[in-house]
Amino acid sequence: MAAKFDPWSAEFVAHPYDAYAELREHAPVSFHEPTGQWLVARHQDVAALLRDRRLGRTYTHRYSHEEFGRPAPDPAHEPFHTLNDHGLLDLEAPDHTRIRRLVSKAFTPRRVEELRPAVARLAGDLVGALLADGGGDLIAAVAEPLPVAVIAEMLGVPESDRGLLRPWSAAITGMFELSPSEETARRAVTASTEFSDYLRELIRERRTRPGADLISALIRAQEGDDALSEQEMVSTCVLLLNAGHEATVNTTGNGWWALFRNPDQLALLRALVDELLPTAVEELMRYDTPLQMFERWVLEDVEVAGVRIPRGSEVALLFGSANRDPARFADPARLDLARADNPHLTFGAGIHFCLGAPLARLELGESYGALLRRAPGLRLVREPVWQPGYVIRGLKELLVEV
Predict the structure, then answer these.
(1) Domain 2-401 is classified in which CATH homologous superfamily?
(2) 156: phi > 0 → left, psi -120 to 50 → alpha, else beta; which?
(3) How far is the CA of 87 from the CAs of 50, 133, 229, in angstroms?
(4) How high is the pLDDT of residue 234?
(5) What is the CA radius of gyration of the chain?
(6) What angle do CA 375, 109, 141 make, to 5 degrees?
(7) Which of 3, 160, 238, 350 is found 20 to 30 A from 213 (Cα to Cα)?
């Protein structure tokens, strides 16, 4: 049954949901030979494994590569791995616990909420420019620049340098796809080196001239003698940009495409934007999930839905399938912007639950709100095409008229 799962197929990327339904029904846990992964398709199992400490984002805190039966990373890719391996997303306890606690002292819900006026202003400016142009590519004009501008403002990146961030992010996140090419790896290594060097210089500057930005707050974040190392600060800043940016961009693009395909729901949202917007944002994140797959290593033998998965295996937790599971969501293929019972897994769960979830919700709320209120006649020009990537799934462009 897993043969229908084809992450390199444009047809599958455009519409993976029929294949997911077959997996959930006939093979909820199955080994997929082409990727060498165990696919886990049901919401209950994905949610449980996200919280299961017998799995990890890494294994090197417990095993060597040889002990785990895995090849060591290519030394030529070292700059990417150094950057990635010191970020919260790919760490396990005790390092994850220590770093998340320190980062949380700087990246607080209050700090995020204080950004609301700036995010609203940025979203309004971008939507205003789209209106002045009579339309354009919604992704390039609004979805992409908003999260980059927000995180740049948080980090204190000068406006003249902000054009560097998006290309660096795109190059680095290319490595999160299945079986990335050597050319993808080369671009990621170059971007990792350049981005890291840029942030190190910014950190040195903030050490001598601290400000109200997040980097200054990360420098101050400590408990006793415990503080973030420079590499941990660099990796944290990159993760905040990459993870927050990709999720927000694709939730915006995927979400508007879903709204255009469901004109009754779009009309309802336009009529009741203030009341419906919070649940609408959650439903749009569930309906066409920006991160389709989250991978974990099996540190100890586990049994899932009656299937034994041995230590040393890699599991692919299919978020896109879990978020369409009829065992957990009523009529999951229907877009329901008023859906109240919505335990989607778009932000993950357990210790790796997305630290930036409050910021993503803020950005999405302000972006959708500005477009709904100021562009009530927004309409699609032509059907969009999907990017080739599957793990981080989004549109190439979304052309609209106002």
Answers:
(1) Cytochrome P450 (1.10.630.10)
(2) left
(3) 18, 39, 12
(4) 97
(5) 21
(6) 25
(7) 350
